[in-house]
Amino acid sequence: MNIAFLMYPERGGVYPTFHLAKELIRRGHRVIYFGLREFEKEVRAQGLSYITVMTEEVPIIDPTETVAIGSSQAKEELRQYYSSTAFRESLRMLSDGGLLKCLRQDSIDLVMLDALLNRAWAPKLRKDGFQVVQIQTSLIGTNKSIPPITSGYIPSGHSANSFLRTRTAWLGTQLHHFLMDNPLSRALGRAALKRAVPVEARMLIDTADLTGDRDAKYIGLKRHLRGRGYFFRLPEIILCPAVFDYPAAGEKWIHAGPCVDLHRNEDSFPLDPLSRGRKVVYVSLGTHVFYYSAAETFLGTALAAASANPDLFFVIAVGKGRKLEAFRAKLPAPVPDNVLLTDFVPQIGMLCQSSVMVTNGGLGTIKECILNRVPMLVVPCAFDQEGNAARVVFHGLGLRHRISSVSASELSDGIRQCLTREDFKSNLAKMAERFEDPSELNHALEWIEAGRYEAL
Fold first, then answer.
1. SS in 3 state form for the chain?
2. Which domain holds residue 377?
3. Residue 255 maps to a domain
4. 130-134, 196-200, 398-402: which has the minimum mean pLDDT?
5. Is the pTM of this model over 0.70?
6. Which end of the chain has less Cβ packing within 10 Å, N or C?
C-alpha cells in the first residue's frame, strides 16, 4: 500500500509519526511524507521519504525580532510574509488542487492526515476519492462524562460536584467554539486578515475557505464537537496509549500506543563534563514558547530556582531561534554557574540524562518522559496542556503549577518532590511498562492494513 503522511509543520505533530511510519515500512508498505521544505531534512534524517510540495521555503517571521503585536513594524513584517511567493503558492496548493495532483502522481492509496489539517484538507481529499485516516496527537475525545482536554479539572468519581464541573467545562468549550466558529465570526476573521493581505492572496483565501465548506456539504461530511473544537468526522488513530486517559474515558478509538521513536536520529548532547555528577533538571516550554505570554517571566523564575539549588544542574531551553545574548541581556541577574542556557536540545538524548523535567505539558514530551521514567513538573500554557497536566497528576507521575503565578521557591520545592517521592518513580515504572506493550500498535497496524475505515 502507498501511504502519504500529511502533517501540520511542527515537531509536536511530525515527530510522533516517525515510529508508526517506520513500522508500516517494516511491514512492506511504501510511506511518503508530503510537506513544506522546513521539515524535509528532519524527516529524511529518519530514513523516511519526503516530497516538498512547494518550490520555495515559507519565510518564518522570527518572534524575537518582531516588536509589539499591532505595531507598524509588526504589520509590515506580516504584509511581507503574505506577499511572499511561498505563501501565495501554499494557498494555490489548497485552492487549485496542486497537492492532490502530487498525491495522484505517486499513486497514494491512503492519506494519514494530521487532525490540525482536518478543516482545511479533509473535504478536498475525500471529495477527490482518497481514503483518509486522521492522526490525532492529542486526547481530544467526545466523551462528556470526563472534562474536555482543555480543562485542568480532575474528575472525582461519580459525585454530583464532579458531574456539574465536568458538564460546565464542556458547556464552556461549546460556547467558546460557537462564538469563534460560526459564519459571522469566520467572516469577521477573514475581513481582519485581509487588511494585512495583498489582493491576490485575499482571493485565494476566499477560494480555499469557500470550497472547503462546499466540498464537505457535497460529500455529506459531518462535523462533531471535540475537546478543542469542531472537526469533520473521520476514521482516526490516536498516537497515545488509552491508559494515559482517565479510566472513565471508555471511547472506542483506535489507539496506536505511545508512538515514540526512542532511537530517532538526533544530535548527541553529552552533559557529563558540565553537570559533574549532579542530578539534571531539564526545563523546556516546547515548540510554541514564543506565543506564551508568561514564558519569559517563567524562564526567569526557573533561573532563580536554579540559583537556589547549586547542588543540581539545570538545562534551560529558551526556544529554538531565540537569540541567547538578547535573552541574557534582559535578565535581572547573571546566569548561575549551574545552568546551561540554550535555545534547543535534542530531547530524547536530554531525557536520558535528566532526573526531572519542567515542561509545559505537550503530549509528545509527556510520553517521552514516561518512557524514560522522568518525573514531571508541568506548567501548562495553552491548547491541550491543562488536560495533559491533570492526567499527569491523576496518575501520580508528577506535579503541576500555574505558569503565571509559580514562585522560585514553589518551583524549587516541586523539583525536590519530583526528585525524592518514591510514588512518582513507582507510578512511572508501571505506566512505562503499559506504554511498552506493543498490542495497541499492532492492532492499529492491522486496522490500517484491513482497509475497513469507519468514523467512530
1. CEEEEECCCCHHHHCCHHHHHHHHHHCCCEEEEEECHHHHHHHHCCCCEEEECCCCCCCCCCCCCCCCCCCHHHHHHHHHHHHCHHHHHHHHHHHCCHHHHHHHHCCCCEEEEEHHHHHHHHHHHHHCCCEEEEEECCCCCCCCCCCCCCCCCCCCCCCHHHHHHHHHHHHHHHHHHHHHCCHHHHHHHHHHHHCCCCHHHHHHHHHHHHHHHHHHHHHCCCEEEECCEEEECCCEEECCCHHHCCCCCCCCCEECCCCCCCCCCCCCCCCHHHHCCCEEEEEECCCCHHHCCCHHHHHHHHHHHHHCCCCEEEEEECCCCCCHHHHHHHCCCCCCCCEEEECCCCHHHHHCCCCEEEECCCHHHHHHHHHCCCCEEECCCCCCHHHHHHHHHHCCCEEECCCCCCCHHHHHHHHHHHHHCHHHHHHHHHHHHHHHCCHHHHHHHHHHHHCCCCCC
2. 272-434
3. no
4. 196-200
5. yes
6. C
